[in-house]
Amino acid sequence: MAPPGTAPEKPDRTPDSKEGGLGLDSASQDAGLDCERLLSLFRCMVRIRAFEEHAHKEFLKGEMPGFLHLYSGEEAIAAGVMDTLEDDDYIVTSHRGHGHLLARGSDPKRMFAELFGRVDGYCRGKGGSMHIADMSRGFLGANGIVGAAVNIGTGAAFAAKYRGEKRVSVSFFGDASTNRGTFHEALNLAAIWELPAVYVCENNFYGSANYQSDYMKLKDIADRAASYGFPGVVVDGNDVLAVRAAAVEAVTRARSGGGPTLIECKTWRHWGHFIGDMARYRDPAEHEAWLKRDPIPSFKAKLLAWGVASENELAQIEEAAEAEMDEAVAYGKASPFPPVSELTAGVYKEDRP
Amino acid sequence: MAPPGTAPEKPDRTPDSKEGGLGLDSASQDAGLDCERLLSLFRCMVRIRAFEEHAHKEFLKGEMPGFLHLYSGEEAIAAGVMDTLEDDDYIVTSHRGHGHLLARGSDPKRMFAELFGRVDGYCRGKGGSMHIADMSRGFLGANGIVGAAVNIGTGAAFAAKYRGEKRVSVSFFGDASTNRGTFHEALNLAAIWELPAVYVCENNFYGSANYQSDYMKLKDIADRAASYGFPGVVVDGNDVLAVRAAAVEAVTRARSGGGPTLIECKTWRHWGHFIGDMARYRDPAEHEAWLKRDPIPSFKAKLLAWGVASENELAQIEEAAEAEMDEAVAYGKASPFPPVSELTAGVYKEDRP
Amino acid sequence: MRTLSYMQAIAEALILEMRRDPHIYIAGEDVGKFGGAFGVTGPVFKEFGPTRVLDTPISETAIIGHAVGAAAAGLRPVVEILFMDFLPIATDELCNQAAKIHYMFGGQVSCPLVVRTAIGAGMGAAAHHSQSLEAWVCHIPGLKTVAPATPADAKGLLISAIRDDNPVVFLEHKMLYATKGEVPEGDYTIPLGKAEIKQEGKDVTLICYSAMVRQCLAAGALLEKDGIGAEVLDLRTLVPLDKEAILSSVAKTGRAVIVHEACRTGGFGGEIAAVIAEEGFATLKAPVKRVCGPDTPVPFSPVLEAEFIVSAPKIAEAAKSLL
Amino acid sequence: MRTLSYMQAIAEALILEMRRDPHIYIAGEDVGKFGGAFGVTGPVFKEFGPTRVLDTPISETAIIGHAVGAAAAGLRPVVEILFMDFLPIATDELCNQAAKIHYMFGGQVSCPLVVRTAIGAGMGAAAHHSQSLEAWVCHIPGLKTVAPATPADAKGLLISAIRDDNPVVFLEHKMLYATKGEVPEGDYTIPLGKAEIKQEGKDVTLICYSAMVRQCLAAGALLEKDGIGAEVLDLRTLVPLDKEAILSSVAKTGRAVIVHEACRTGGFGGEIAAVIAEEGFATLKAPVKRVCGPDTPVPFSPVLEAEFIVSAPKIAEAAKSLL
Ligand SMILES: Cc1ncc(C[n+]2csc(CCOP(=O)(O)OP(=O)(O)O)c2C)c(N)n1
Ligand SMILES: Cc1ncc(C[n+]2csc(CCOP(=O)(O)OP(=O)(O)O)c2C)c(N)n1
Ligand SMILES: [Mg+2]
Ligand SMILES: [Mg+2]
CB C267 to CB D139 under 8 A? Predict the structure, then answer.
């Protein structure tokens, strides 16, 4: 694995600022990643985007029940962080978790089956988008209760430490969720117990319809780490290498007994809070500016500039992702609904011997 | 009212440090208080101490049911803060609230009646020490749930602002309570809504048997205010004038629309967490050092040094407090128990027409 | 009479009361400029703006907690917890603080607070956005609990809830928001604690509330085909409970089927059954029956969710089994 | 056999299980060097020290919340919430997370978690330190609820609870901690879901759990003087509920008095009454009766608190009224 790159400068929240812009002057080149690794980061982001676009389409067709919260625009965070983890690490996330599962290696077929409520879904169709989990990859689940996962992620970190293992636990959550008391209690506990926990705040500036300044008098959420006595860092969440560099540092700290870190990744969601929310509350100019900072084209430009791959090779990755997701959707739809007997099965462990 | 005195230096947590010591070099003299006011601060602290000693004695006799958490040693905080409030301001506190009521002017007779579970108590004997309230003085109650009062105090501040009144709401709470999520949610809400709220953290270094470093990796709890974007200050909680000066500043800010302040007062409880807790977990040397910083004798020494009153005058205040509390205990004990019909009365407002 | 949706009826009640009494304000997540997660408070925000319809951070303990302080200090907060599934986050504030301060402070203070929250399954929203936890709040002395089934009841009961000097939990069923019904103009109140017979019948009493009233009416229609007369008793308020209405209907029919969407074990149906078994025993011609949600979380998959929700045929079948 | 207190029996169960299985740890407020608010965990801390008996900050949501993650990741946490009155703070963690993850994740994960907490009045501790909120947890599918009445039951049930692969809420009544009884040595289990007849009788069944078992036994003695044979059925576990034991005892006596300390309305007694009214109706010779705490917060004043707590004479009186 490459040595940790230099942590990038704090980006200003306006996307067109110098530090946060598209310049190739960031941590990118000195991260020392080989081409395969760089392409895998690209592939990861592209697959997430393709998954979300497919989900979006299916939802609009009325084929998916419930709520759908898309991760499009925030792919660099899942891709950058997951790339730094080992197979036995733990992960939790919130309602906006598809990207985290995909980046962790979960199968989009079984994910779509879950989103369609089918029996081949990761949760036999009982969880859906907001409760999707993949225990085979240490993925302890998405969560329908904003702010609940952070305590669970902290507990998984405790389990690792208690058993003397070198495992790390990463919790993903949104900016607005940090106003819940659970954030405060979990991070404080992790600090006291010096747990191998990494807290990744995906700051997309909105908690549903509310702008960050509507619900906190703080510019950088990373600064909240000071209340718990561990480091908090801000990164450009649309720069996958910057995210990765920060994650390497935090994960290394956690794994080596150095305790928790809070990483704030500034980013933007491309769609409304959920599908159906037209996001009329957003400033169109700001939205446009952020769309120009889409993490995928910007990383693509770098890969081309660095000669990591050709246009054609990258296009192939994109096409493959499209095809993969077409197939995953088809698989999901072809999977049967669970039998009605599943309703009362598995409430308790012994119910299903 | 006197202009706000200079905020004192942050005291070091070891009580015999230079800044935190007994030197008369603090905010005291330039607070510009007249003799009457200084004596009333002294009287206030002395009355609280006398009340607590009487309560202690009665509890040991087995005459008081439930839990008793004494405020002895922390009197300077209640006295200093309450002195800065207007009659229509709001106050909430925790389980350790006798001092706050007394400093607010509540009648020790009715307080003792409450502590004995008698009908003449402020709550007809239904609340007891942990749930004592005095609405006639804007005192919205003690609270048996650690960390619950801070939201209630915030709501009272909201009520004042909503009605366009110049009232302020002061919430008292302990150091360890700041690890509850309610602290986080309440202070953040107050920040966003720019409420006339003052948060007074009485840091006696212990949350029951746990030392501050056992439950937070932070030296100054005041620093937690940064998470909410308003000022946090540290004062010597055993120096009534330092507390008062910080309160003047915070109350003035709140009343003039400047929003909340967190004041951390470093102090020490003279007894165990509750009566019955022998506090064996404390370092005897540290305890001794803090006892030497008892807020009452130290303020007394200042009053004498400044010629505010004679030994004799101060002794009279102490004797009067003793006599007053003797009488209050007697009143409390003489008050009858509530009739059994009171059990089911007053669950709903209309129950008692 | 004009027709309104359940959602519009609730908004109308809020608007009328807020015009009448400046002490009433609304606070909650997305109640303001977003207009409410289900759109209820949109028209209220339009009329009263952000000083009386306040967006909060995602801080459920602060939403109910601050409201307790505001109510104790003389305001009349109407706060919203988006989904009742989130109420567990603020149960200390609701059940230990709001419910108890009047009593434990010896009557010095009152807590006129309304907590509006959405209950029920049917949206594919799964385990964390579909629960009906009324049993919890009904168990806490000091709280009142209201669960209207129709737009007209929703309006009249909400006005009563707002005027009540105690904390009231007002349960709005998600699947009712779009349902329509005749709603009187102007302000009127329906007293808390008064059930209503939504359909008369002589053979069996179907005791229900909230969305299950519709299912019971549908079950009544099914039963009618078999010549069975079902009396549909809509409790409307769970606490205080209209025991007289329950007992007198059961005295008439001799048979009781209790219906709720919430999980069976420990549900409020147990309380109703107990009241009948204690005070109506002599009038019973058959066992009491409960038709409730199963003891499972609400599953995501639409086929399972549909099976979770009590249906009219199941109610009718239960009623028939008593005859 | 040797005699232990309820408190000692609980500590013994914890120690035996922790010796057996290194995945078990304890976390809570003051469980460590202070030895537990009631002294229960003192001996456990002495043997296992701070790596397995962990003091936490005052952070109830983190206490249960972290335990859910630790359990999902393979540990077997036994956490303590000092007073059940504080459980409302962590009901999201308990009822939305711990209870549901096994089901909503389709069986991928289990949550072997025990939450020990103290219930009950009798200490003059007033409204925030005296409640019995078992009805809440009994209503949440996925949780089990245990409420032992004797030291021997406490030990055997706690060992079962710890070995169970589901979240179990273990209710310890404060007024029982000092009570003594014979307790077998070594490890033994009492299965969850099995009631026990603590006294046989033919005329009336007194159905109870936790501290009320003592009151019912005392009531039984009073009734015996009047020649009435009371059967005292100690449920021991509330979920899963031993319906067979209830129904067969009621089938024998034809009369049921349900007793709990918790407030009446919405209490778990409703569930028991409903089970009898549904499935035992044919065997009933008289109405069901509940003898419960009144619908009030627990008052501080000792005279009022004493009146709050259900007493043996009240139980006996209720039983007589059925004969
Ligand atoms: C406890 C709780 N409160 C409210 C909600 C409703 N809700 C779902 S997502 C959301 C906004 C979350 O914002 P943020 O944490 O910034 O995450 P993002 O959606 O931006 O990824 C809200 C209010 C919820 N699910 N749970
Ligand atoms: C929610 C809650 N958790 C735990 C307790 C038990 N308890 C009462 S006081 C206390 C310690 C409080 O410490 P701190 O906030 O520092 O206040 P202090 O007692 O030092 O004044 C604890 C743990 C409680 N009453 N409420
Ligand atoms: Mg966000
Ligand atoms: Mg303290």
Answer: yes
